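Sequence, structure tokens quoted for completeness.
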Amino acid sequence: MTRKPAFPRGHRICLSQNGVELSIYYSDEPHIALESKEIAAEYGADFVKTTYSGDLDSFRTVVRGATVPVLVLGGERMHTDRAALELTHGAIAAGAAGIVMGRNIWQAPDPAGMVRALRAIIHDSADVDAAVALVRR
């Protein structure tokens, strides 16, 4: 039986403890997202994975309210590498601890370049334009 999210229009966070993931759904409203992250921390999560809201200020509120590191999901394959780099830049600028990204790396025309670009944003505080240049080497 497939379980439906408590908030159909919301996003999902996953908590991971000892290799086991538990999904918690929350709405687009930051105060409800904060409550979900608090629940994850109470269950002993080492970190939470969530989607980036797309808005620096609202996501910063969510990250600041979390008691465990927040990792951002890459989601579905984006139309351009720049879009994935912009998502990463926004999330890191808002305080995310890192990213969990798969298909936006593996399906990129230059996966190694994409990893270089993501690393530059996360570890070297590169802007999006500088990161895009690393993909097109």
Observations:
- Residues 11-104 form a domain with the TIM Barrel fold (CATH 3.20.20.70).
